[in-house]
Structures are given as structure tokens and as C-alpha cells.
Design brief:
about 350 residues, Helix Hairpins, about 0% strand, mainly alpha, elongated
Length: about 350
């Protein structure tokens, strides 16, 4: 069997985490003390998540460590969710009280370097060597208690197994949607890709790679939708369907384009059809803001300033047009009229 794409140190650390996960040692898995507060637990989880998230090892050959990595990460996530939920944490501490007390006592004993305690004395028996009724009752009570504890442990283990299986299934679904989104991106289906990445983030909300890819896809989808609306607006204009063109351009503007063209087109139509100089002025300003080097946009803004009696503003725009195009006759004539 080929060696996995892990360093010996990573293999050793993963073996340790896997053993802690199998033992349901949530505090040990996160590497925090039993008395750790929520902030310490959160910091420990984020550090482990950055180091051991399965996506960091995507496309690597991990061999038998692939399953161990998934199980360990699922249990790390479960430990974080359990220990940051006060009710679940109290229940876990109650169910594992004996073990936690033993570990705490062992830690205190190591700190004090105390010798190991002597074993408990044997049960008292009768003079004839037979077990007394009191001891037999005590022994039966211990058996019933041990049986009840074992039954509770089995129920808890089954529940935890179901939780692990559900978390693993969620991670697999997230990976599937992520890969589908990548395929859609490569095929140019950016809107569909954004939907796939959104689902991936829902199934694995702590995955930064999925979240970053979703933002990229959403931005590209937004740009694609703006371009689509602009084309629809231009087609409506070509058929002299002014109100329909305004509708499409307004939808495009609501998405926040960074090209001044759509603002300029909508501003001209608003002045023509609705006689709304206030909205047109805001649109022409945005056209110049996003495309300051287009003389046509500055010329429209200057002409509207001039009509509104804002002569200094108009002069500034006409001069800017001449700086961009020294031979612009319209700007020269407008400056002379001022």
C-alpha cells in the first residue's frame, strides 16, 4: 500500500485525534480543560478546523487515514457544538462524571506527585466464609447499577453514531454541491453555480473555501444578470418601447453596476419620458462616477446642470469634456454660451 500524503507527524497527530474521538473524549479532542470557557473552546475549535478540515486534503491520497480524518473532524465539530451549548455540556459532564472526576483527580495527583491509592478492602464475610446478606445486597445493587450504566452507554453510543453518520453525510453533500458548482462555473453557468455553492455552504457552514467561492460566483452572477438586463433594455429601445426599456434599465441599476453606460441610458429615458430632472441628475452623476473618461456622459451631466441654472457645475463638466477631447465642438459651444 502506498504511503499516504501525510507527514509522520501528521499521521501521529491524526492517530491521537482518532483515538480521542473513538473514546468520546470531547475535552481531550479539543485540547481544553474541563473548566474551559466558551471562548477557549471556540478558539480551540477554529484552530483544529483550520488544520484538519477535510477540504485541506482534497485530492490527496490519504489511504486508511481518509476515514480517520473524516471521523476525527466530525467529532471535533460535535465536541464544539456540545461543549458550547450549556445544556448539552451539563448533560455530557453528568453522563461522563466518573471519567471526568478520575481524569481531574489524576491530574491533581500528578501535580502533587502523590503515590497511588491503595485498593479498597475486600468485602466483609461471615465467620464461616460465606457472604453476608448485606454484602450480597450491596453486590447486587452494584451489578444493577453497572448494568444500567452499560445500557445508558450503549444508547448514547448509538445516538452518537447516528450523529456522526449525519454529519458525515452533510459533509459529503456539501462536497458534491461544491464540485457541481465548479463544473457550472467552468461551463459559464454562473447563476446555477451560485445556487450550488449556496447549498454547499448550508451543509458545511464553517468551510471558508465554499464561502469564498460562493462570493465569487454571486459577483459573476450579478454581472451576468446586469448584462442581460442591459441587452433587454437596448432591445426594447430599438422597438421604441420606452417604458419597457426603463423597466429593464432600472432593474439593472438596482444591482449596482460599475459601468456608467446603464446609468446614462436610463437618465436619458427618464428625462424623455418622465421629465424627472432630479432622478436624471442622480443617474448622470453615477454615469460620470463609474465612467469618468467618457465625454458623452460628462456632456449630458453638464447640459442638465446648465438647464437647472447650476452654471459653475456645468462649466466644470464642459471643461472636463475638453480635457478628454480638445476638439469636442459641443463642449466649446456650451462654454461660450455660459
Amino acid at each position: 500500500m502506498p504511503a499516504p500524503d501525510l507527514t509522520p507527524e501528521q499521521q501521529q497527530e491524526l492517530d491521537r485525534l482518532y483515538a480521542l474521538a473513538e473514546a468520546q473524549d470531547l475535552y481531550g479532542l479539543l485540547g481544553v480543560h474541563v473548566d474551559a470557557d466558551a471562548n477557549e473552546i471556540q478558539q480551540a475549535y477554529y484552530a483544529l478546523s483550520r488544520k484538519w478540515h477535510p477540504d485541506r486534503f482534497f485530492r490527496k491520497d490519504l489511504g486508511e487515514y481518509a476515514e480517520r480524518l473524516e471521523i476525527a473532524f466530525v467529532m471535533i465539530t460535535q465536541a464544539y457544538k456540545t461543549l458550547t451549548d450549556p445544556m448539552k455540556r451539563r448533560q455530557f459532564n453528568r453522563e461522563n462524571q466518573a471519567r471526568l472526576e478520575r481524569e481531574a483527580e489524576a491530574a491533581r495527583a500528578r501535580a502533587r506527585r502523590q503515590p497511588r491509592q491503595a485498593p479498597p478492602p475486600p468485602p466483609v464475610t461471615r465467620s464461616d466464609g460465606r457472604e453476608s446478606i448485606r454484602d450480597r445486597l450491596a453486590r447486587n445493587a452494584e451489578k444493577r447499577s453497572a448494568s444500567s450504566i452499560a445500557a445508558g452507554r450503549r444508547i448514547r453510543e448509538r445516538m452518537e453514531a447516528r450523529v456522526r453518520a449525519r454529519l458525515l453525510e452533510q459533509l459529503r453533500k456539501a462536497r458534491t454541491f461544491y464540485e457541481t458548482g465548479l463544473q457550472d462555473m467552468e461551463a459559464g453557468r454562473v447563476i446555477k453555480a451560485a445556487g450550488a455553492f449556496e447549498l454547499a455552504c448550508q451543509y458545511d457552514p464553517h468551510n471558508e473555501t465554499y464561502r469564498q467561492q460562493l462570493e465569487v460566483a454571486k459577483e459573476q452572477a450579478r454581472a451576468a444578470r446586469i448584462a442581460q438586463l442591459v441587452v433587454q433594455g437596448e432591445q426594447a429601445e430599438s422597438y421604441q418601447q420606452v417604458k419597457q426599456a426603463i423597466h429593464f434599465y432600472r432593474q439593472a441599476v438596482e444591482l449596482g453596476p460599475t459601468d456608467g453606460k446603464v446609468y446614462h441610458r436610463l437618465g436619458n429615458l427618464v428625462r424623455l419620458d418622465e421629465n424627472d430632472d432630479r432622478e436624471a441628475l442622480a443617474l448622470f452623476r453615477n454615469a460620470v462616477k463609474y465612467s469618468p473618461d467618457v465625454p458623452e456622459f460628462r456632456m449630458s451631466l453638464g447640459e442638465l446642470y446648465q438647464e437647472l441654472g447650476l452654471r459653475l457645475n456645468a462649466r466644470r463638466e464642459f471643461q472636463a469634456v475638453l480635457e478628454l477631447d480638445p476638439n469636442h465642438e459641443g463642449a466649446r459651444a456650451a462654454l461660450k454660451s455660459l
